[in-house]
Amino acid sequence: MSRYSCSSVSLTTIVQEAGISAELIGASDVVITGITQDSRAVKQGDLFCCVRGQFADGHAFAEQAIRSGASALLVDTVQPNVASHVTQVVVSSVRDVLGSVASATFGHPSRELKMTGITGTNGKTSTAYILGEILKAHGATALVIGTLTGERTTPEAIDLQHQLREFVD
Question: Which of 58, 102, 126, 137 might form a disulfide with 50, Cβ 3.0–4.6 angstroms?
Answer without folding.
Answer: 58
